[in-house]
Sequence to fold (137 residues):
Amino acid sequence: MRFTFKIEGGDFTHAGNGSSQIKKLLKQLNINPYLIKRTVVALYEAEMNVVAHAYKGIIDVDIDSDKVFIKIQDDGPGIADINQAMQEGFSTASSLVREMGFGAGMGLPNIKKNADRFDIRSQVGVGTCLEITTFIK
Fold:
């Protein structure tokens, strides 16, 4: 099964809609609740990063019998130093985003912690692509 969701940068009203829909679907498929939680936490964090930092993005989710594969690609400023961005507490979020309770610098580390496989690529001035895989055991 394949699903695609669009994300608009700055649209905090609709932020999390994609991860919410995937959570409902995984529950309907009787996936282990622990695996659902890990998958949805990773997806939600990635979705919020696009809303907080990019202009727009696309979420592609492929679900098959042994894994959930998620690809999030955004058009945005990109990440200058991925190693630095992976450090807990590092954030480039605006003061407005921080005032809303986001931008604590835990997004990328939480994604990595909740994924069985995690890959990130970014180009400054172009955008960022995350690939997240959670195995269904």
